Amino acid sequence: MNKFPVQNLRQGQSALRPAFTLIELLVVIAVIGVLVGLLLPAVQQAREAARRLACSNNMKQIGLGLHNYAHANREYLPKGWISDAGHEDEGLGWGWSAQILPFLEQNVIHDQMNFRTSIASHGSGVKTAAIETFLCPSDVRDGAQTFAIGEESGCDEDSPDTSAAGDVYGLSNYVGVFGADHMDHGHGGGGGHTGLDPDDGDGVFFANSRVPFRHITDGLSKTIAVGERDSRIGGSTWIGMIEGKCEAMSRVVGVGEHMFNEADPHFEDFYSQHPNGMNVVFADGHVAFLPSSMQEATFQALCTRKGGEPVSSGY
Asked: CA-to-CA distance for 250 and 244, rounded, in angstroms?
């Protein structure tokens, strides 16, 4: 047996070892880049699917909360918001979602509220409370669960919130359905465009509404009660209508006058970050994902409680 190679190695002479060439390294990096490019969209889709499911679960809890509230109140749904007669943007302001808190296991927050006094008279602990059930995980809000609401003076419908220091309130991504027609805010009809009075919505929730199930004659399974609104078009509140604030009534409800997820949405519209559609709660409590491809007329028909419009079971 030849011992010279071993002897040479012991004398410090280097042995040849296999290694990657520069071309091979570049090929490996390119392959990894292609794989990452293929996997990343799949991972993002999986994450969004999980977020959409969590949003759907939130809305299912809201639907159960609405029904449990109704069963405890002679089958009447909660008022859209509590206001002064004839001055619907004034008054105590408590919204439908604040009224169902005991049925969402949020008694701690609910017990701090005095529904005989106005929202504004309460401390920040109540007004800024973050309730996970009212927050959609797909909403791009940089982790913020509160927002600064704009004042009524100098109110801009296209930018109703303020970046300056102001009153801060807890955010909600779920608003009740006022109906299919524009809500008249008393600002000259929006450039000549008049609409329904705030206490006369044709949906489930409006000022001092208190709609019983039997008055939803279009059918509970064909009438939307609650839809989504992303904070990108403005902050909505779970607590209710705050007197003296910009777009105070639209913080609580939305209208189906325009199709949801429009490219240029109005603040009172419905809007979702979910690709290709939006989650909604129907009056019977079931949750559905409405596709963006649905007809606007169909969506508007689903937003009314007694319009008598024919709607197919498959929408």
From this structure: 13
